[in-house]
Structures are given as C-alpha cells and as structure tokens.
Amino acid sequence: MVDANPIEPFWQEFMLKVFAHKQPAMIFRGVSDKQYQLLPSIARHPAEYTGGDVEMLERELIEEFKRLSLRELEFEPQNAFEWLFLAQHHGLPTRLLDWSTNPLVALYFAVEKNDESDGLLYMTSQVVSDQYDVFDYRTADYLNPVPIAIQTHQRIVLFVRPKYKDRRYHNQASVFSCPAQPYTALTEDVLKTLDTIVVPCRLKPYLRERLRTLGISASFIYPGLDGITSEVKSLRFDPVFSGHRRLFSFKVC
Fold it and tell me: Could you give the CA distance from residue 73 to residue 204 in angstroms, rounded to a whole number?
C-alpha cells in the first residue's frame, strides 16, 4: 500500500492555491518538466528554421492533413478551428496549447511521466469562448472587424473551448490557447494572472496514486484501449521496471 503522508504538504498547497482564486474562469495546464515553456508544439524548434513565421509550415501541415484524412472521417470539420482541434487531437503539431478547466486533470499531466524532473502546474483566469468560428486563429482576432474585444488578450492570444464531440475532450475538460505569435511563450506579462505550483519529482508516484483514487488515471484521460494499456503498464510493469517493486514466486515441490 502506498504511504500518502509524503504528499500531504503539497496536496494542501495545491488545494489552497486552486480554491484561493475567486475567479470563475480558472484554467490549468500541467507539464511534466518545469523547464517546459508555454509554447505550442508547432513552435518547439528554433524560430530561424521558419524565418520566425510558422504560417507556411502550418498551412502545409493542415492542407496535407485534410487531404489524407477526409476518407477516414464520419463528420467533416465545419471551420478552420475544428480542423485544428482534430489535427491537434491526433498529434499533428499546431499552434494550439492544451489547458483544462479541471485542476486534477492538469495535475495528472504534471505527474504522468518524467519522474526524474520536477513538474509544474500553471493556472490562470481567462475568458474562454465557445464561439471559435468567429475568430481567425492566425491573428487571434475576429474574422470580421467589430468595435469591442470580448477576450482580454485578443489579438495576442485567444482561449477557446471545442465542442465535446470526443470523449477525451469531455474527460479532460479541454480548453485551448491560440496565439497570434506561436514563437512567443505565454508568460505572466501576457496573461497577467498566471500562477504556478512546482510538483517535486519525488512526489510524482504518490500523486499518481492519489489521483487514481479520485478517478483521474490513464484510462480516464485517454478513453479506450490505449488508455487502459497505459494504466495497466503504469500499475503493473513500470514499478518493476524502475525497481520500486519486486516480484517473488513460490513453487510447491
């Protein structure tokens, strides 16, 4: 049985910080290494490789994804953002960055792997829009000019919520940030309300166990056989592989 005592000071800090924020629109992101910046996957390479502008690379990726994926789809995405959501969901590099309205989901991503590195939990209060079809993802602004901005950081970064057609989005309570300049990391200067909690690497195994008791495990985060396989592996194989668990068999002669 896992001794939960080592995580209690951290757990108390986590709960206090999460519930200390009075804003209703808090969103969270967990990363397994605290050195990771808030950069989308399409921009995690030197900016000079694309001349500081990912738009050409992004267009090539999305157009090829569309061309090859149409025959596999039951329902065709209706706008540019829905194509981005779909591409991101299946692992294509995009300018979207995953967040969650559920702090436990974000904590799971902070402790999911990289047990040799401290994780980090980000939290920020942002206006999230469900009407993503009215925005241009490349400029983080309206498709048609309007006199007033509805998001605090519009024209810098948008926060949008996809329709939860996929169970993974529903379980992860997904929200995405979409920046106008993907090579510019999101920082406190941009988001203003950004706060963080360091997740010590030594606590990751204990926190995974705590989250599992709360129903936040690989099979919940990644519904389907892939998630089930990941959960069984983390429960039965990884502890043996890392030396945290030893198996002994006894044979009766």
Answer: 38
Phi-psi region of 196 (alpha: psi -120 to 50; beta: other; left: phi over 0): beta
In sequence order, the 6+-apart residues with CB closer than 8 A to the CB of 231 are 217, 218, 219
Rounded distance, CA 108 to CA 53, Å? 32
Calpha distance 128→132 (Å, rounded):
10
**Cα 184 from chain centroid (whole Å):** 18
d(CA 125, CA 138): 23
DSSP character for 240? H
Spell out the residues 6+ positions from residue 178 whose beta carbon is closer than 8 angstroms to its own: 81, 84, 95, 96, 97, 135, 137, 140, 157, 158, 159, 160
Q: CB burial class (10 A; 0-12, 13-18, 19+) of residue 112? A: buried
- Tell me how far CA of residue 92 lies from CA of 17, 89, 130, 157, 169, in angstroms: 33, 8, 22, 20, 16
pLDDT tens for 43-86 read 999 899 999 889 999 999 999 999 999 888 888 899 999 999 99
* Ranges of each domain in the chain: 5-216
Q: Give the whole-angstrom CA distance, residue 74 versus residue 70.
A: 9
Report which of residues 19 and 213 the model is more confident about: 213
In this prediction, residue 197 has a pLDDT band, given cuts at 50, 70 and 90, of very high
Give the C-alpha separation, 117 to 111, whole Å. Answer: 10
